[in-house]
Amino acid sequence: MRPASWRAAMVSALIVMTIGGFAFAAGQYDPGATDTSIKIGNIMPYSGPASAYGVIGRVEAAYFHKVNVDGGINGRKIDFISYDDSYSPPKAVEQARKLVEDDRVLLIFNSLGTPSNTAIRPYMNQKKVPQLFVASGATKWNDPKHFPWTMGWQPSYQVEAGIYAKYILKQKPDAKIAVLYQNDDYGKDYLKGLEDGLGDKGKSMIVAEQGYDVSEPTVSSQMVNLQASGADVFVDIATPKFAAQSIQKAYELKWHPMFILNNVSASVGSVLKPAGFDASQGIISATYLKDSTDPEWKTSADMKAWNVFMDKYAASYDKSDAFTGYGYAIARTMVQVLKQCGNDLTRANVMKQAANLKDFDPGLLLPGIRINTSPTDFAPIRQLQLMSFKGQTWQRFGPVMSGEASGGQG
User: Is 334 part of any domain?
Assistant: First the structure.
């Protein structure tokens, strides 16, 4: 009996050691992750010229709070730390260092702005800390070969601008185009996409370009100059504050070209409503997310779920502000990645799982649009649909379209 008992004890011990070995192998952690918590960093312009975007960070915080109330992710609660950079690249670098070196976050999620993210990208890749689902559509975020720790989320600005170019060429093949653009990497990325999309005719079709700096109080003088060009198409590449100003100014000048507005300022609540609905009629943009002001989605399951979330956890925010839906959908994408990580909460595995999203729908994506990534493709969303503003809401038209940007090395 004693040898048998000894063998049984040895087998039991081996089973415990094996189970323990698997648990240890699965329970891998880098800074910011423990058995009970996952620390996520974020940088948003809660103040400054792009403060309209601040609601994104607030909705993300509310969604992560909901996740914690529901029990967390694989039993771990999210500790979401969000700092203000005032849309200033030097401040963004300071906040990124604070999050990584002082707060010791596992990753930085959805930091906003092309200039700010460009400034922190070298640091994040040097430190091998995920800079995940960047809140910018710059083409450069899809460059896994050179920047394997940085990934975007929304469609590329160049892809979006290329879709506008195709529309212009079809509707007004002899158009005279005027462009307002923010004088930084964000504005220039859109501008390149527009020029590439227009092709050989681009140089002759674009009759006027006016840049602005975010430090300027208004874009009134730029709008006067653009109107004076005689253009019959206006492409507005501006962040919310300046987009609202340009819409108002065009209306004041009684200038009524075909008006194309970039998606990043297509929010009814934070751009078109402040600019004035009368001034906004007929504006054309493109989208990949359902708009809460569109009655078509009133009974859809994902819009109902979003409304329940907003009413319970984010009731103080304007539902007509498209940035609330954006914050919700991208937070749900982050949660999916962390769920896929299981108990391997290393930074390398976070990036591995982010690069392994297959036909994922976080809710609120338009029908036919899904998130897909791979180790060689860091562009999760590639499709958009055109829409026109009528009354107090957007009306989509035409097919869902996709496109390719010229490259991610910029």
Answer: yes
Phi, psi of 327 (to 5 degrees): -60, -40
In terms of DSSP bridges, do strands 177-182 and 206-212 run parallel, antiparallel, or are they unpaired?
parallel
> Considering its fold, how many domains does the chain have in total?
2
Classify residue 306: in a domain, yes or no: yes
203 and 223 assigned to the same domain: yes
Q: How much of the chain is helix, strand and coil, in % rounded to 5?
A: 45, 20, 35
Same domain, 127 and 144: yes
In a domain, 11, yes or no: no
Ordered per-residue pLDDT tens for the chain, 410 residues = 344 333 333 333 333 333 333 333 447 999 999 999 999 999 999 999 999 999 999 999 999 999 999 999 999 999 999 999 999 999 999 999 999 999 999 999 999 999 999 999 999 999 999 999 999 999 999 999 999 999 999 999 999 999 999 999 999 999 999 999 999 999 999 999 999 999 987 779 999 999 999 999 999 999 999 999 999 999 999 999 999 999 999 999 999 999 999 999 999 999 999 999 999 999 999 999 999 999 999 999 999 999 999 999 999 999 999 999 999 999 999 999 999 999 999 999 999 999 999 999 999 999 999 999 999 999 999 999 999 999 999 999 999 998 655 444 33
Range of the domain at 162: 157-287+388-402
- pTM, whole model, 2 decimals? 0.88
Q: Name the token pair of 84.
A: 């203000």
Distances (CA, A) of 185 to 60, 137, 213, 395: 25, 11, 12, 30
Provide the b/e sequence for 227-265 (b: ≥16 CB within 10 Å). Answer: bebebbbbbbbbbbbbbbbbbbbbbeeebebbbbbbbbb
C-alpha angle 360/362/364, rounded to 5°? 120
Task: List phi, psi (to 5°) of 111.
Answer: -65, 140
Do 238 and 366 reside in the same domain of the chain? no
Residues 137, 205: one domain? no
